[in-house]
Amino acid sequence: MTAAFVSRETILAAPDIQTETVEVPEWGGAVRVRGMTAGERDSFDTAVTDARRAKKPTMVRARLVMLTTVDGEGGRLFTEADLPALDAKSGAALDRLWEVAARLSGIGARDTEDLEKN
After folding, report:
1. What's the CA angle centered on 96, arms 51 and 15, to 5 degrees?
2. Beta-sheet strands, E only, within 1-118
3. 8 A C-beta contact, residue 62 and residue 86
């Protein structure tokens, strides 16, 4: 059996970014999390690497939550300006969102270990 190849048009039109609703009791409700696009993932990786090189706080969890939490129309809930405020929120809440966002964004166990190690 041979694999069926998809066209350029099919790939570009595919709705391949998944979302998931996550209960966050610390915040009194649920939050919609979506996977990152390839460009967002590159931006995330670069921001974390740059912060480490500059020996600045990476705010890894807050940054991932900023990039992946969205409203009902898919617009981001937070901006870069919100990073310090998000970084000050419950670690348990951010960890819960991190797990879902990482899974939906293709951040594997090795990536997570590297991020936490540094």
Report:
1. 85
2. 19-24, 29-34, 69-70
3. yes
pTM of the model: 0.84
64 and 98 Cβ atoms separated by less than 8 Å: yes
Angstrom distance (rounded) from CA 92 to CA 111: 20
- Please, are residues 27 and 93 in contact by the beta-carbon 8 Å criterion? yes
pLDDT in tens, 73-115: 999 999 999 999 999 999 999 999 999 999 999 997 665 555 5
Residue 28 has which token pair? 């009194």
Which single residue is written with the structure tokens 């405020």?
85
In tens, the pLDDT along 41-81 reads: 999 999 999 999 999 888 999 999 999 999 999 999 999 99
Structure tokens that stand for 4 in this block: 């069926």
Eight-class DSSP state of 15: -
